[in-house]
Amino acid sequence: xxxxxxxxxxxxxxxxxxxxxxxxxxxxxxxxxxxxxxxxxxxxxxxxxxxxxxxxxxxxxxxxxxxxxxxxxxxxxxxxxxxxxxxxxxxxxxxxxxxxxxxxxxxxxxxxxxxxxxxxxxxxxxxxxxxxxxxxxxxxxxxxxxxxxxxxxxxxxxxxxxxxxxxxxxxxxxxxxxxxxxxxxxxxxxxxxxxxxxxxxxxxxxxxxxxxxxxxxxxxxxxxxxxxxxxxxxxxxxxxxxxxxxxxxxxxxxxxxxxxxxxxxxxxxxxxxxxxxxxxxxxxxxxxxxxxxxxxxxxxxxxxxxxxxxxxxxxxxxxxxxxxxxxxxxxxxxxxxxxxxxxxxxxxxxxxxxxxxxxxxxxxxxxxxxxxxxxxxxxxxxxxxxxxxxx
Length: 391
Hints:
The protein is about 35% helix and about 15% strand. It has twelve helices and 14 strands. It has helices spanning about 25-35, 60-70, 85, 90-105, 125-155, 185-200, 205-210, 220-225, 245-250, 295-305, 355, 370-380; strands at about 5-10, 40-50, 75-80, 105-110, 115, 170, 180, 260, 265-270, 270-275, 285, 335-340, 345-350, 370.
């Protein structure tokens, strides 16, 4: 009767197609099966495969499942092709080999490395071999990480798009996957969004108009057309409809000016895969990397509007001419528009609300009210006194 109930652990770092097993997985399986056939004291009871997972981290699905079988006593032997299949981070790999596996009485076998914890000699030769190979595997991972980061940095500085999912309004060129080209349909929607914002509409009103016209949101559009999309993309509503947040994200994205901004997020090093936001000083910006959908002038104007009070009044759908523009010359606060009625006549004026609030202070704001019509005539002689920005 076999003494050991073994698990064959198979791992491959990256696979282009996760729907089919890679050749390397099949080769590892055959090697382990041939080894078990030559050792009658070992019974292969299960197989754990992590196809497309890095060896630096140990939260791999199949590996976690295998360790659960170890703690449950279902297996007492682990067989791998070589040490790098178990892991490439030498500290954590060593912890499993020297602490965790011995604690649970697990025999570990690395076929190509000639490591078998059940046959270790008293001189520690096997332990020295394992330690050296773990260090080499770790160094290999670090070297690959440096080369990969360097290659990505060169591509980004050359204006190549290195992301997985293009922003709404673009898709990857069929001739060059590192180049963005306008999506004939979605690019027009982006242009309409910027146009409506420049006309004075708020992000919420733009989203409501797009939903009224039954325009698919970015996420719904990509899903409907079979385009790739990220989990944390432009959608912030479960029903995939347009929202103010989605519109604002588009209005703030410099990609639409033809400028490619990359490297905004990254991991600290090759051992820590947690992604963090990087300071703007480390971003890589390349102008004229692709065809622009919005001019630089219009984009800058939209950003300036973000800092101004361009809200509409509750019963209006248009932005007044001086909304968010008039500044009190006394205190520097923003002046607000008020309306007075006298009989059939209506008067509009601007005043500083700070003046009323600070009347009890030693140095209150003593600015005077400004009538809207005379102000419009002085500022814009060619503009009708009741002019408002068109909707």
